[in-house]
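Hey, can you fold this one?
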Amino acid sequence: MKTVLPIIFNLFLCLYPSQGWAYLDELDSLLKAHVTPVEANDIKYNGVDYDHWSMDLNHAKVRKEIQKVKLETLKTKEQKMAFWINAYNFFIVDLLIQKGERDGITDLSGVKTAWDRYIWSVDGDTYTLNDIKDKQLKPFNDPRVYFALACAGKSCPDLRMEAYRAEDIEEQLDDQVKKLLQNKTKGFDLVKGEINTVRVNEIFKWEEKEFNKGNVKSWLLRYFPLVINAATKIKYYDFDWSLNSQPRD
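Sure. Predicted structure:
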């Protein structure tokens, strides 16, 4: 009997997964229904249909499920990373929907930025967007995280058209890095007319210390071994904070 109980318990966990993942199917539905690749302001990005998203009944369901997650049920690094990335990205959309903001998230800043001004509850505690980024995700020391946090501007890393899942998080993060660095409109490109000079997204400036302790060029070298060298000059794209919404006709 003693050997049977653990088997039954593990089977139960497989059939009835942790409530920390109860929201994933609904979040997938939201992302697939309301996010699509577009181009505006000469930038290619994943555009969000905020108006239709706001009317989708799954939004309230996902918010409720995320906020009631018992954090102790998130045991592994992969589970924690996937949950907090999903929470960050969802809460930004939630903020824009609740405030009816359709120009840009920076318009919601006051004395504090939007990332420090607004709070959400999760498992009885309150978090700002920067709390999630700096206190929950930064300790993992994985710079790929910054390619997954969709900060709602056209120049931000793209909102993925699927939820992050613990079992897929490694591949999803690698893919996010690849997609941004291959996007010449906001991620990475050679500067025309300037020798040995590249232009990169400003996340490399904002989070510089997270990329090989500030050596951004050495971090980029693995992706562009034929382009980056010790003498390479790095410049940054002008950051477009206008909302990552789908263009209107």
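Residues 145 and 173 are 7 Å apart (CA to CA). Let me know if you want another pass with a different chain boundary.
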